[in-house]
Every structure is written in C-alpha cells, then in structure tokens.
C-alpha cells in the first residue's frame, strides 16, 4: 500500500526561506503593460490583446475560461489589468 501524506505532515517554508521563493516584483509603465498583454495574447491566442479583450467582453470565452484545456484563457484574463492601465 502506498504511503499517503496528511496535511499535518506538510511543512511550508516561512520567513526568509519563504521570501527567497517569491519572484521579485517588477513595475511596468502603462505602455509596457499594454505591450506585455498584447504580446501574451498574440503568443497564446494568435490575436492582438485588443481583439482578445473585445471577445472576452462580448462573452465569447466566459463558458470555457475555467474548463480543462483552456487555462491559457484564464491566464490572459488575469493580466487584462495590464492592458487597461491609464498613462
């Protein structure tokens, strides 16, 4: 029989050890944010960021964004705020 792990046995890092595992935060200008989102949309979906947002707002991806095999859509949705920054 395979050995199982319970929640009580899991040790999560804390303090400096946990901080070392967090990637550094970077700040981007509104222009950089829009470019970052547009590049991601083109790479993942083969369309501009503007087109992706238009389709998202029209409801085209609402039913599938969380479905298996469509994580890339949810990933793009999560970074839409980069595209909507005001200069």
Please explain how this structure is put together.
- It is a single chain.
- By secondary structure, the protein is an all-alpha fold.
- The chain has a domain at 28-87.
- 51% of the residues lie in helices and 0% in strands.
- The longest helix is centred in the middle third of the chain and has 16 residues, at 30-45.
- The protein is flat and about 45 Å long.
Describe, in short, the structure shown:
This protein is mainly α and 87 residues long. It is 51% helix and 0% strand. The mean pLDDT is 83.
- Please give the largest β-sheet: none
Q: What global shape is seen?
A: flat
- Strand fraction equals under 5%
In DSSP terms, counting alpha (H) and pi (I) runs of 4 or more, how many helices? 5
Low-confidence stretches: none
Would you list the SSEs in sequence order as H and E?
HHHHH
The end-to-end span amounts to 60 Å
Mean pLDDT: 83
DSSP helix fraction: 40-55%
Radius of gyration: 18 Å
How many runs of DSSP E, i.e. beta strands? 0
What structural category arises from helix and sheet content?
mainly alpha
């Amino acid at each position: 029989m395979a050995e199982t792990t319970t929640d009580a046995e899991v040790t999560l890092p804390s303090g400096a050890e946990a901080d070392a595992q967090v990637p550094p935060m970077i700040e981007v200008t509104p222009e950089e944010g829009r470019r970052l989102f547009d590049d991601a949309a083109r790479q993942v979906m083969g369309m501009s960021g503007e087109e992706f947002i238009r389709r998202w707002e029209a409801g085209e991806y609402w039913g599938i964004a969380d479905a298996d095999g469509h994580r890339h859509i949810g990933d793009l949705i999560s970074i839409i705020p980069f595209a909507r920054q005001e200069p």
